[in-house]
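Inverse folding, one chain.
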């Protein structure tokens, strides 16, 4: 049964990405959706609703399936530094993991495949370094 929730989560992510592309003609790249919501664009409403729906979907999953809430990490300096590094990486990679990993690879984009491999390798290296240092 434990394998079922991640499987359903992946299915819903894929369906929502396909639905946004099919019905709205947009790629489900969270960073692009977020920055578009912050800018004064004509399609701002759906972007804001999409961003609001992300934590609401997690809350709904927590309530319906009794999924435990992850423990918080108390080191705010590391959290802020990590967030800034992610922001820099998004700009350098011309997108985020959702845009490249979910949508780009699904569209057979070589650029997205390379970006996703880079994201994953960087994540593995970061975890190894953090475990050694802390």
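Residues assigned per position:
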């Amino acid at each position: 049964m434990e394998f079922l929730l991640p499987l359903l989560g992946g299915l819903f992510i894929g369906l929502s990405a396909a639905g946004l592309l099919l019905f709205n003609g947009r790629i489900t790249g969270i960073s692009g959706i977020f920055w578009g919501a912050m800018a004064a664009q004509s399609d701002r409403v759906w972007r804001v609703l999409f961003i609001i729906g992300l934590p609401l979907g997690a809350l709904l999953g927590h309530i319906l399936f009794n999924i435990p809430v992850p423990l918080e990490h108390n080191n705010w300096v590391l959290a802020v530094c990590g967030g800034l590094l992610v922001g820099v990486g998004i700009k350098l990679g011309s997108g985020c993991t959702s845009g490249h990993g979910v949508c780009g690879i699904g569209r057979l984009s070589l650029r997205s495949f390379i970006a996703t491999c880079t994201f994953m390798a960087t994540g593995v290296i970061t975890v190894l370094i953090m475990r050694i240092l802390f």
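The two ends are 34 Å apart (CA to CA). The chain has a mean pLDDT of 85.
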